[in-house]
Amino acid sequence: MFVVAFLKFTMSLLHLIFDSLILNWEIITLFFLIAILYSSVGFGGGSSYLAVLTLTALGFVQIRAIALLCNIVVVAGGSILYLKNGYFNFKKIFPLVLSSIPMAFLGGYIKISKTFFFILLGITLLIASYLMYTSKKINLNNKLLTFQKSTAKDITYGGIIGFVSGMVGIGGGIFLAPLLHLTNWDTPKRIAATTSFFILVNSIAGLTGQSLNPSFYIETYLTIILMVTVFIGGQIGSRISIKLISPHNLKKATSVLIALVSIRILWKYIFQIYFS
To answer: Mean pLDDT lowest for which of 20-24, 78-82, 113-117?
Structure first.
């Protein structure tokens, strides 16, 4: 009897997973490609996951949670690889995460309205798209910039980015990496490693804050499928370089997509406020 019941349960579970795969194959494919692209440059892909998910019928509470979970899966693998290769300088990383972790938790815990969330998300994605588009120029000019390092500034930057990231549902790397390059914070490899770790701890903190909110919920089957998808994509992106098209060109194309989605979101919800 136990074997029969177990087989029925397994078949039912596989049927639900298969149905979710068929219904959401476009999203799954996009998440796979995003994970490869972003992990190849040290990011988690949260901003692009959000951009894709806003075009679905999922609730905004689920959107934030799924983006953070996928972030965690992608950057966890990348952080392990950076750690093995000795790219972490925890003395310099500590001030950044000292304030970002509690602020990301607070940002994730705060209950916000649907309209406010989407307006904030639209603004955040628009800024992120600009930073992504100009990131190649930032890296090229990195050697020419000589700003004095400041622990107080690192704590301030980490806190602000952590709070906004937790509230919106991203790890914050898309904001941190260009900032670190602009301030000549460290070598490109160490900046990528720091960004990956920053995304990891802030995604965990933001998700923890969200999970304690009474309105928190996720769609289990789709979330698991997407997490497995980005894990595979993240492992690929962390180990190989894209040869046919450079990561910078792919990032620019993605930034344009994010910008278009952010404009669409802002137009829709700001229009509702003023003309509803």
So the answer is: 20-24
User: How far is Cα 42 from Cα 272, in angstroms, rounded to an integer?
Assistant: 37
The residue segments making up the domain with residue 84 are 2-275
Cα–Cα distance, 148 to 144 (Å, whole number): 13
- Tokens standing for 15? 């049927």
User: For residues 50 and 55, what is the distance between their CA atoms, to the nearest angstrom?
Assistant: 9
For the four alpha carbons of 203, 207, 209 and 210, in that order, the dihedral sign comes to positive
Q: Which tens digits make up the pLDDT trace of 171-225?
A: 887 778 777 777 777 777 788 888 888 888 888 888 888 888 777 778 788 888 8
Q: How far apart are CA 117 and CA 114, in angstroms?
A: 5
Spatial separation of the C-alpha atoms in residues 33 and 105, rounded to whole Å: 29
- Where b means 16+ CB within 10 Å and e means fewer, 117-145 reads bbbbbbebbbbbbebbbebeebbeebeee
| Count of domains observed in the chain | 1
Residue linked to tokens 């190989």:
240
**Amino acid letter, residue 90:** F
The CA distance from 40 to 195, in Å, is 13
- What pLDDT shows up at residue 147? 42
d(CA 168, CA 177): 18
CA 163 – CA 115 distance, rounded (Å): 18
Distance CA 37, CA 160 (A): 26
pTM of the model: 0.73
**Closest listed residue to residue 154, CA positions, set 131, 183, 126, 129:** 183
Can you give the pLDDT at residue 20? Answer: 62
Cα–Cα distance, 168 to 249 (Å, whole number): 26
Helix (H, G, I), strand (E, B) or coil at 242: coil
